[in-house]
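Q: Study each token:
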Amino acid sequence: MTAFIALRQASRRDASELAILADIASHGFASWLWCADVANGVSDTPLEQGRLKMSEEEAVGGWRDSVIAEAYGEVAGVAIGHALEDGIGDIVATIPATEPMLALQKTVVGSWFIGSLGVYRHLRGIGIGRRLLEDQIDRADRRPVSLITASDNEAALSLYGRNGFLEAARADDVPLFENSKSHAWVLMTRSAA
């Protein structure tokens, strides 16, 4: 464990930072989703909408489910995780691009699900992602841990593989744009500790 990395529970005041880091973790997928709310007049920018989502009191995957990593006196990264409850089986994807990920999540009900793990680029490679991942495994409280990443995200696949995660399933993505590069969503799981 790297001593200069401190973890803390996020607070509602962290919503802006959480939105940025969730967008980084998703390689822009989060802000693409938030664009729909901009088009509907709910907010002026995707990141503003992300901030609103992250600041909601009872939102799954919001500030209450978030752990912030700090290093060198600044926010460095985030992990957002929660128990995947039976109720997910009742959720219907309203956006085609989310269908494959939702289908994968429905196969691991009962696990601890890491929805986002992101670190600012200038602070990568010093153990922050590993420390956040270890913390999420501890929070799982002896449950299996699951997450989804893109098949072309080699850094993430390597990090998760080194930490005991194995590929459980894949699903082809639904391209966001006509000329989008295609990939698969990879469901990775780690046995209960």
In short: The chain has a mean pLDDT of 93. The first helix runs from residue 15 to 25. The radius of gyration is 16 Å.
